[in-house]
Amino acid sequence: MPTRKRRGESAPVLSPSGRECEAAPALITQRLAQIASLTRPLTLSLGVAVGVGLAASAPAQSPATTRPPAPAATPPSTTPPAAKTPRPGSRAAKPDDPLAAIDWLATPAPDAGLPGTVLLEPPVAGSARRPEVTVTPLASLVAPVGLVKPASTGLPVDLWRGSSAEELATLLAAVPVRNSPAMQSLMFTLLLSETRPPAEGGETLLLARLDRLMDLGAPDPAQALAEQAGPTRSTARFKRWFDATLLTGDEQTACRALQEQPHLAPDYAARIFCAARLGDWPTAALLLEAAHALELVDSRQLDLLDRFLNPDVFEDAAPLRAPKSPDPLTFRLYETIGERRPTANLPRAFAAADLRDIAGWKAQLEAAERLTRIGALNPNHLLGLYSERAPAASGGIWDRVAALQRFETALETGSAEAVSKTLPKVWQAMRTAEIETAFADLFADRLARIPLEGSAAQLAWRIRLLAPTYETASHSLPDLKGHAAFVAAVAQGVPTAELAHSGLEQAIAAAFAPESAAPRKLQRLLDNGQLGESILRAMQLFAQGAEGNLGDLTDALATFRAVGLEDTARRAALQLLLLNRR
Fold this sequence. Notes:
flat
């Protein structure tokens, strides 16, 4: 009895008996006949070859066993099989190709002349070490940040493309704009325009924009810009936002955000102030005691916070010593305890705090003049303060208020004689305060409607050239000679070397010449698409040119014109010629 193969064991080699050897060829032949009848008829040679080969395998296991002759196989039908249609893309079968019952087995191998598979990597590794894999994150477009749409500023949204954020931050902090209203306006445009930061260092550039806005005395735009960017996304953003709200009087919003996310607090003093500001006095007192016990706040600020939380205890105490350089929180704390500090010697941003109603009129006037001088305040705000009431005294700022009020009264009457008498005095007052361009913006159009004569007409003409309608005004003076002719040509964008007499005029004329172009260094930046950086560097050149380096002045003005800032170039040149602040 044959032994059954166990699972997992290899089959033992057995010698077949004679009866099994006799039955094997007939059984195999019968199975082959059944396969042939189910598929296609096979040729005689295939059936005989398989039958003989399988039959011969049995005696090969036991050479000593005698096998009887195999019965004759039934001859196959002589009807040739139907011709098969070759598969698409395959060649026709050759006479010596083997036959097969399965279609894909009958498909011949491709010709040797066709190219083989092209490998995109070597088939064998060069070493057994693990290959290095470089991972690069997919760059995503950061949402642009800004308060003014590109359609209004004329600047593209990718203004800072291709430049280093650190380099841009340095330029934004260092470009001087103090003596040029045109450069002040351009700087505010760059800071507030809706732009996308560079691929790397977006946070650095945003913080630099906020810092320069505060430096220019514009906490309101700084607060709005921080809020648009997301002031609670980092502690650095929150600190700048918090400082701006302290100076604008909108600290309630920042304190609520700090209450929800205490980890954003720049220090313990901010948490104490905000807790009290929101009415949570027990928490504020507890934080003050903890800060005192752990020495988390310096002694001077502790005394200030103690007076802030317990005003009744220190009602008769002597005033605290005023700090030389207070931060916005310290400034507000002094204000809340009734010891408000003057802002004249503090950074410009503190002047914005004097624009609130809690400050006196004189403090508001001085703050408004200071902020208008740097271009951080709308001239209409200044005019509203000037005309709010009658001057309280004489001398200094009161004389300027009186001169402007008399001039505005003369304008309202429409009398050329009255305007001719008051215009020189008010102009001298505005020159003393260095707010000539703000005055021109306010009154240029109204001056154009007054039929003045003589020196008053010439003065009014120069004032109108400082206003946005300078080009229209340039055609209104009939007698254009010497310096006036060159100034009018600048306003029209066509100053020539023939009209230039001084070195300053020649430098300006060279910038407006048809063959003028940006210097090579700035042109390379423009060729690389670094528009924002090229404008900032041109502003640096302009500041140097205004100080006497006339070559830099020519390069700066030519660059402004090359990038499409024609209005900026003309107004900057006109202000150099008319204001004489060098």
